């Protein structure tokens, strides 16, 4: 069994059709018309009696990008290594392009799968030039190899002249791009990226991510990115799979997992969330922010409602009142902490004793720090729908 991660030596494969326009990454995306490239069914994996993967199911469509995101230790890298073929699942199945590569009676090691792997640190060979790193494992030699190396460098937005340098003469972002070029050299059908941007500083990280994303887009390679950075997952992928405690808590488009998280932990992991006590009646949730519409509420009565901070706007004449407690200034935006007024009691309709009283303090964001000095009375309005979670979740 292969134990060290290294790029696949799989045979060349015809590049799949280019993926649709990049706006598909931002908005709700329907992959039902695209065949699955990777299918993972009921995968379990334990180390020394500790179950790390507890039954993972995941389908990845041909030519699309999936981000597996989750807290440290949730099992993301373990899953990626099973897909790569660096280790075998205890049970369950993994199929690539419809052919089983891991199952009860079958297991193909990494070098027999058409899979590229880019590790966190790029893992370039330090004693080889950039060109030799990229050409490593290429079936080409001499001029043909250097031409191909040049093409691959250009593919990752680097000048051909970099081929002569050693890895230590490159920036972290350039090293990651070379690692990607090396992985792309074998024309893998599936590219696995294990936190490849995490060692880069903020500016370089965004630029490198964009370059890598564009390169993979153009090559039409099915891609899986492992990250613990939820913003990276939401911006990079067509599909986000949220891993928690060895299971996928939710899988969907970035828009769906962010705006309609399946549970409270997923909501809080994927971004800032305003979570309030609420009383669900029909399709309206009554809370300190008024009556918030909820689509297809699964329960009635006492619940928690979740809104994203950007859904709550400061608006003169808005129906909700609150008082600024304090603020945190971040430059382009300010976090404003606001104490809401308690829920108004309708004198004619006595309230249910379980109904919440409201009056919580929430955090919202605003661009104008001057507007929100402590003690200022504000009017607020809510846009869009809320998501509810059972009271005891
Ligand atoms: N080879 C191994 N032997 C024993 N335990 C392991 C092995 N590989 C992973 N684990 C354990 O499995 C759990 C999940 O690890 P994994 O690296 O998959 O998590 P992760 O979600 O990728 O975390 P991180 O974001 O910190 O990289 C951890 O508790 C880890 O210690």
TrEMBL record:
Signal sequence, renumbered to the chain: none
Biased composition (Polar residues): 1-11
Keyword Membrane among record annotations: yes
PROSITE patterns the UniProt entry points to: ABC_TRANSPORTER_1 (PS00211), ABC_TRANSPORTER_2 (PS50893)
Domain ABC transporter as annotated: residue spans: 38-270
GO terms of molecular function: ATP binding
Region (Disordered): 1-28
Record's keyword terms, sorted: ATP-binding, Cell membrane, Ion transport, Iron, Iron transport, Membrane, Nucleotide-binding, Transport
Keyword Repeat appears in the UniProt entry: no
Protein name: Iron(III) transport system ATP-binding protein
